[in-house]
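Re-run with default settings, no changes from the original entry. Doing this only to confirm the output is reproducible before filing.
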Amino acid sequence: MKAFRLIILFQVFCFVSAFSQLTDTQIRDLKGGRVKPDFSPVYTLPFAKGSKFLLIQAYNSKMSHKNELSLDFKMHKGSKVCAARAGVVVATKADSDVGGLKDEYLSQGNHIIIQHNDGSRAMYWHLQKDGVLVKVGDTVLQGQHIGYSGNTGYTAFPHLHFQVQDKNGSDIATRFITKKGIIYLRPGKWYRSVKQ
């Protein structure tokens, strides 16, 4: 039993050493087995450093994200959109200039899709016409300016729809670096992009 406790304490020590921002409560929760460390990738917010935007919908929000793990940031048309994580561009669309709440607009959203080194893909939707600055095959860095927000596709107002799927096409929740540390975002809050 003593050896088991030593192993657990060593694992907690290693985790705490890697993530020194843990509070005493978080350490107690880890030691007590109430939570498990989250080693998922950390994303930067998908807009220019220093910019601040309101998150209007988050994971499973009732308006239009029911059973969907995606985020909607309210943005003026022409706001800079930046890569939240490094990867390779695998799809783009930039020729649409229409949007609204009709089914006919579902396929009209300008977008960028970036594949990460673990096979997951980040999707940036509703970009403005000719608002895509990258092309398929480009390698992009985290924080790189890749496009401009808009109001194309199935949308009620200008915003950026951000979504990540794993290599099997299932939605996954993502953590972001913020002024308050590495967190999962909550709707109704303003977030300012900071450098990782």
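DSSP finds two helices and 15 strands in the chain. Residues 2-31 form one domain.
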